[in-house]
Structure formats: C-alpha cells, structure tokens
Design goal:
Blueprint: H1 6-12, H2 19-25, E1 33-37, H3 43-50, E2 54-59, H4 62-69, E3 79-84, E4 95-100, H5 112-122, E5 123-135, E6 148-149, H6 151-157, E7 162-174, E8 180-191, H7 196-201
Parallel strand pairs: 1-2, 1-4, 2-3, 4-5, 5-6
Antiparallel strand pairs: 5-8, 7-8
Length: 202
Amino acid sequence: MAQGFGDYYDATAARPPRKTLLAALDRFERPGRAVDLGCGDGRDTIELLRRGWQVVAIDAEADAIARLQARPDLPAAARLVTEVARFEAARWASCDLVNASFALPLCPPAAFPALWHRIVGSLLPGGRFAGQLYGERDGWAGNPGITHMTRAAAERLLAGLAVELFEEDETDAVTPRGKPKHWHIFHIVARRSRSRAGDQRQ
C-alpha cells in the first residue's frame, strides 16, 4: 500500500463494473441506498449511480476519491457521498446493498470479524452483500494485513444469509499491475432475510 494505487487505477480505468455487483443489481426491483467499500476510482460506483442508486463511496486512498469525483461519466444528478477512510474504521447507515469488490481481503484478520458484523448488521431486510473473499491457496496468503479463509470458513460466514451466488475461482494470472499471481477467490452475492424476525430465527 505504501507504493500507492495510482498505477492500479490507471490499469483498470476502462474496465467494466464487477460481475458480482451486476448480479446483485439484477436481483433488485428498484434502486435504493448502497455503500461501496474500497470504491477505488469508481468503476462500480458509477454503475450504481447510472442505475439511480444513492451511494456512499468509501476508500482509504484520497487519490481514489479524487479520481471518482473527476470522472467524466459521473452522472450530473448523482446522489453520491464520498469518504476517505479505511473501511474497517468507517461507519455508515442502514442500506440495501454493501458492495466490496476485491476489497474485504485487504482488511487485517484481527479487524475482519467486526467489519463483517457491521456489514451484515447494516443491511436492511432484503438487502444484499456483493463482493469477493480470498481463499487459503491464494498467492497472497500469509501476507501481513490480508485476510484469507477456507471455503468452509467462507460458507460459515454467510450462515443466516440467503446465498444467491457463490463461485470459487482458482487460476494463475497476473495482477492489474502486471505481476504473476495465483488467484483463489470466492465470488459472492448474499441476501438478508426480508424480515428481521426471520433473521433472528436463523
């Protein structure tokens, strides 16, 4: 992180929104309120705004927020609030969607349980989480400050939510910065029960 993310944003600037976000959005009947954790320069935030969502975009990098606010495709009537903060320290109001595309693994393991509890607790009935977790065979496993888990642990994490998408992806490829890496990823969309009483029973 010390090297900054400018080259990462440059490399991913033209990429489309994440498939997990699109899968979650296609399951909503109407736009609502979303939180985009680790929003980067806004590839997912822009799609949410384009579809009429109200968005709180959070990122630890001030450069990311500046790039998001300067995007030429930022809708003129965008209902957007931005915050520069590490997402494990951030607070946000109840919402219909928490999107965290390739962001949650960057939360240190010691802080991850509280962050996940906050994410699930912030979802309104029928609200969804969309994002990725890293598996234990990922090439960055063991790096300080990065959270990895087994498939069984990821499934336990989702207990009490209706899992609408869970795809395990393991492949050798390169990072957006062009470095070779073994990827072990869980792609997830999960929905909170439509009644809080139902959540309590689960």
